[in-house]
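Weekly modeling sync, notes
Attendees: S.R. (lead), two postdocs, one rotation student

Agenda item 3: backlog of single-chain predictions. S.R. asked that every request posted to the team notebook include the full sequence so nobody has to chase files. The rotation student volunteered to paste the first one in as an example of the format we agreed on. Action items at the bottom.

Example entry:
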Amino acid sequence: MRKKVISVIFRFLLLLLPVIPLCYAIVVQVKQEMIQANMKEKTEKALLHKVCMNETEVRWIKYGKEILINGRMFDIKSFLVKNGIATFFGLFDDEETALLNQIKKDHQNNTGGKQIVQLFKLFQFINNNAGEADNFSASLSSLKYPAYQSSSLLDPLIPRFFPPPQV
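Predicted structure, as returned to the notebook:
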């Protein structure tokens, strides 16, 4: 009975794996929308900063709404371009800057892929020790294809070298 429960949990978690990146994207998007709505309210009430810079140096994030100044997001209430000089009125958005930096850090680390590989290794270890005849590893190794035998699934990162097919 316990082996059956472990097998059901394993299969459920495998079904959830493709949904994890989607959930991350949705959470980040909702958080960014909340920060932007909050900053829009602040720009209506707070004392605005005035930033002047050369028109060619402006890095637009969203035209007419956000720019990037020295790595910091700047929410624009209004702007004016005259004689090659752009003047912006708005607020620095440190919350959105932190969120943007976190997204960049997550993208550079790309730890999600490594964690998924480790999760698969863990599940294979659990299934190999369960001894159940209908578990995932056993069903794959019962196939007639040597590439799907459980010994080749234990560590997918180790390259397997096979001779080329002979005609």
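Discussion: group reviewed the output briefly. Residues 2-109 form one domain.
Action items: rotation student to repeat for the remaining queue; S.R. to check formatting next week.
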